[in-house]
Amino acid sequence: MRVLSFGEILWDVYPDNKYIGGAPLNFAAHFVKQGGGAYMVSSLGNDELGQMALKDLDNWKINTDFVNILPGIQTGKCLVKLDESRLPSYDLLSDVAYDHIECQIKGKEFDALYFGTLALRSRNNLNCLSELMKNNEFKEIFVDINIRPPFYSIDTIRFAFEHATIMKISDEELPIITKCLFNCDSDYSTATKLLSKEFGNLKMIVVTRGENGSYAYDCRSGKSYISDAQKVNVVSTVGAGDSFSAAFMYNYLSGKDIDECLKKASKLSAFVVSQKDAIPEY
Known about the structure:
The protein has helices at about 25-35, 50-60, 125-135, 155-165, 175-180, 190-200, 240-255, 260-275; strands at about 1-5, 10-15, 20, 35-45, 65-70, 75-80, 90, 110-115, 135-145, 165-170, 205-210, 215-220, 225. By secondary structure, the chain is an alpha/beta fold.
């Protein structure tokens, strides 16, 4: 079982430390930890952070055949500043390596393709991903919409929904999506039905609801599924949604029923929020 994960590899740079991240990378790492195989499609700068990233990907056994090194462009960064109360503010740098993804992959077969909207902020990547989907076979296309203001648009949201077979949305993102696509506000149950009707390619919509658990809507059968969140001591929520996505997809591709997929995903994400690192050992 193997997935192709398209998008950003970046570093969260704090005043006193730095941590590798990016939703597609976190997803790939957790998918491998579940027992699958993952290939990254991304770009890094020919700099220290790029070399450090390659070592981390190698340690996590993520295939880097489709990760390009670009001279003269820095590796992706998110600069994190802390105020006097230790509350963070974020500066997600633009025109970095992952805005210039290059890939010439043709005739390959994967169990799934993963992507989100952040990497689609560049026209280059939107074109690259379109070619990727046209030239290769994917049993499923999993989209974690992963909205990061201001780096999204109605066009990139619609592009994501038009190509996904399985869509994951957080309850914080859902109002943004319904406002963009339907100019209305809807609860998660109504919204998933609206989205299913609008985009006939969708098979499944998953909504993560934090401490309220998760919800899935089968667009073909109209059946709904609900899973409770596991109660844990929250240390950090970074990477929780990505681990949820990886566990859900691994179990879905393994043929598990949706109830089981949600339970496995909730269990892993609960463990991740109880840890400091986005990709802890387990």
